[in-house]
Amino acid sequence: MNAFWQGLNEAIVMILRGDSATYEALFLSLQVTVYALFVSSVIGFPLGIWLAFSRFKFKRLVMNLIFTFMGFPPVVAGLLVYLMLSRSGPLGYLQLLFTPTAMVLAQILLALPVIIGLTYLGIQAVDTSVWELAYTLGATRWQAGWMLFRESRHAILGALITAFGAAISEVGAAMLVGGNIEGFTRSLTTSLMLETRQGNFSRALALGLILLLVSFFVNAFLVLYNQTQGIKHHARALD
Amino acid sequence: MPEPWIKINQLTRRYHQKTVLHEINLEIFPKEVLTILGPNGAGKTTLLRILSTLEKADSGKILYNFPGQKPLTLSFPEKDHRRISDPLRPSLLYLFQKPVVFSGSVLDNLLFSARFRHIPVDRTKIEHVLEKVGILPLLHQNARSLSGGEVSRLALARAFLIEPAVLFLDEPSANLDPLGMQMLENLLLDWIHKTDMAIVLVTQDLFEAKRISDRVAFLLNGSLIECHPKSTFFSHPTNNLTKQFIQGSLPV
Amino acid sequence: MNKRWFAISCAFFLVFSLFTQSSAAPTLRDIKNHWAKEYVERAIDQGIITGYPDGTFQPDRALSRAEFATILVKADKLPSTDKPLPFKDVNTKFWGYEYIQKAYAKGWITGFPDGTFKPDNPVTREQAAVILAKKMEAETRGVAYQLPYANVLDKNNISEWAFTQVAWLMQENIIKGTPAKTFLPQKSLSRAESVVMLLNVLDYKTPQAKSMILSTTTSTYDSGLLNVLIPIYEASNHVKVKIISVGTGQAIATAKSGDADCILVHDRPAEDLFMKDGYGSYRLDVMYNDFILIGPAKDPKGILSSSNIIDAFKKIAATESTFISRGDKSGTHSKELSIWKAAGIDPNGQPWYVSAGQGMGAVLLMAHEKQAYTLTDRATFLKYAKDKKINLVIIKEGSKELLNPYGIMPVNPKKFSHVQYDLANKLCLFMTGVPGQKLIGEYGVKDFGSPLFFPDSLEYKEYLKNKK
User: Fold this and answer.
1) Which chain B residues have a beta carbon less than 8 Å from that of A134?
2) ipTM > 0.90 for the complex
3) What residues does each domain of chain C span?
């Protein structure tokens, strides 16, 4: 237990001192995850909404696949992306292996099913009469769909937060497709792995603490933003 | 006798092998309250939903003929009935049996309605309609925290804001207390008096039907048994089943 | 009338010629057909060097050390300094004192071991090279000298203290050899030659950095050796080396799929197969370290008393002492398996045999926690033992079976046309060249008391043989 407290102590000192390698890793982790989430949201939210409304022959199979991919083991996602981007692979000519872009791609593979699946479930959970109410009030199908989406805002937020947490904390895929190259593809999690492997526990602990702090602040921001969106709408109505 | 605004011809709707509506023939005229009576499961709600274009039917025709608009006929089965019935929507409004609101304040709910219908937003107008239904103090309150009765009034306020040609009410007494019901009836009658609006009201409450209807139709197991002006309907119903329903002795 | 016109036009021409000559110096007599004519003229223009008062330049005359320092200082227009000169033979009254002082203050010149500067001695070509390299603040130790020296027949005449600098300047095209494929390191530098060199230095633009990928094993990377070697290579060659450190199997697979340009591993059978299948251009020995058997200090079952490593393994099996294996097809793992095989034992499935499937560091920590035995490379062990992360001791070492040789191979550009063969080739040459090998041999001595690796390239072994 003594080693733990010592490690924790060193960790706090390190964070305050602003070690450059650590902050480099921090910014890389944030950049990669934010890009991945953005792309996943742009594709995933509309897809999730559409799936919630659509009816087609193999829908159940498709939903089953999406739910399965929500629990995709990150290492497998990493392996798939690796094989695709490798020089010997189909997309090798893009020369994306061992770059931050590859890390973004792997995280999209992980985050996208989560966002699609949770959006779908979130909308399903909302009473469809909201859609009908909007429709009877003259809304177009898209406007009515938006009202339904609006009702499931909280579920959507949950999807974002879940996807963010999963993406930023995964290490297997990042290690595989990024290569943990110093100053280039070394994220918080891959640094953590390296420090642990080399037995530098206090430093590894510091990185873990930073990761938790980042998650904490990002989630706080998301929740606050969600709340202010409601107030903003209200304010707009008064003029 | 003015021209009917809506003419329903042999309207049939099947749902899961069950015939919910069977060859309904009915007309709806302006400036009248048409009450559709019937027990549970008679198909009343389905009829209203089809007439307000929320749902489609399986066969039959509905002719919509509003003044100042091109007449439009929906012939079922209609391939893209929602798109085709689009021009009709400003004239029709269906109020749900179970109260539904958007999350947000009462004000937000009305603003959404206005936006969908492209009605210019006017603070005075909104306050006016809310006052009419008696819920002006609730302007900024969270709509999801309202009681059933208050939501019904909100739905009514929406209707006043939109001013449709035909208003379909699905069992309004279910959620309103007697005072609210009285207010509703007064408002509706006043509205019809001032405009050409038609109201189609669905209810199981005989007294309500007696109070405000111009005509009454009896729907049972998907079939329209008979339809007469109010006085005739209650004093001299032609069908035995109708008689039994009015007496309250209809076997379930 | 004609006489007056004549006088006026003469005066006019005189004045006119004065003006036109204001900036350009008259072409010095003896460089009109010299091979360095344009360089000399430029240098004179820039005020770096002047001709002699008698109108000559004497381009092939030897330059003295003081004169060389002077033109270097003049080219850079250095500010004055008051740092005193430590040279016995240069006093403040010397004509070049100020220039030598400035050059010394910048660290370009150091003088001789006996405290003299010998200002009037002619500067030799190799001395000039060293001074220029200092001026350029170049890291020259990382140069793959074998390449520029391929056409230098007298490279063995170059003094050791100038060896990498001359090679680097040649690589950067700042100095050239003679048409006779020699460098003539101890020959005096001529005035023309010095001008050409200096202008090349002034014109030099650092080329844009390229990047390459080196695939290596976790134990190699974790030893920290590459953190010393690679930056030197990078600085000398304007390269950014991206290092992927993974298990041996994965390192080789990465190279085989063309995702790395060069591979440094320690698994001879795998390396031979890599070459046989045509994935590598060539293979060079780089270094070796050795494996050691480590275990609990208490050594309860007396493994320490075994006569050799194979006996030790037999004893571990016989006493059912806990043994942690890498279990990840790494070089260490292969070595361990070969020893079990030599001992005639199959440890798989035995309750005392723990197959970890992790890197060397993780396995050491596991062995520490369980106070068990394991086979490790000396480098990783020394590093971990130093920080007192593990409480284990060396049980057996030194047998020939325990040698762990490293090989380096550039990925074959015939198999993957996109690989950075040129850069990979230079890296291999650097690591197996004499300065690189010396760096390898020095690593760890300061921190751990003994080197972690032993340089073992063919070239280095030749070099040691010739020294004797």
Assistant:
1) 102, 112, 116
2) no
3) 3-138+191-203, 139-187, 210-288+406-467, 290-403
